[in-house]
Design brief:
Length: about 200
């Protein structure tokens, strides 16, 4: 995926190409490659953060710097400005919906189908010592609560529910509202711990 980013870097920097076209290329080429087979992933908090950071990096490259009249100099876009100008779900929200779509698809299957039997299979082995690893079902359960609130497992049987259930998560809203760091490091970790 990073190779696509580096190949398209000159394209994204080119000032003769419209931003609308650059965003369209990003949405069709990069997003499809980035979310390929994302229905089966188990994402950690760190993974989601890295996806969002990478996506914002690409958006900053496409949208370019903004002239600040108040300070009379050029600056990069803040996270909040990026999300308001793009008006598109983030990569992590797309992955969340892909997983919920797949879960709904499996739920609608007949009981004797292999994916459904594997999803609810109990291997009967003993758990290793230490903290249990995140399971795919745990991630889907949490995402279902975020997107669908109460009774989401029954709503998953309805395909229209998933298409209309996209909600901007608290994670993205808090990331967009972080104070701006004056250091050269973008997205300074001190802001994450302060909020």
């Amino acid at each position: 995926m990073l190779t696509k980013h580096f190949v398209l870097q000159k394209f994204f920097k080119n000032k003769n190409i419209l931003k609308k076209l650059k965003l369209r290329i990003k949405n069709t080429i990069m997003d499809k490659g980035l979310t390929y087979a994302s229905e089966t992933w188990t994402l950690t908090k760190r993974d989601r953060k890295q996806f969002n950071v990478f996506e914002r990096k690409v958006y900053r490259r496409i949208l370019g710097p903004v002239y600040d009249n108040e300070k009379e100099n050029w600056r990069i876009l803040t996270n909040k400005e990026i999300y308001t100008s793009v008006k598109k779900p983030t990569i992590t929200e797309t992955i969340r919906l892909n997983r919920l779509h797949w879960f709904g698809h499996v739920q609608r299957m007949e009981e004797n189908r292999i994916p459904k039997t594997v999803l609810y299979m109990n291997l009967g082995t003993t758990r290793l010592r230490g903290r249990p690893r995140n399971r795919w079902q745990d991630g889907v359960r949490e995402e279902g609560r975020i997107v669908g609130r109460e009774g989401w497992q029954e709503k998953v049987h309805n395909r229209k529910f998933l298409e209309t259930s996209l909600v901007i998560t608290d994670e993205i809203q808090t990331a967009a509202s972080w104070p701006r760091c004056n250091s050269t490091r973008i997205g300074c970790d001190a802001h994450v711990e302060a909020s």
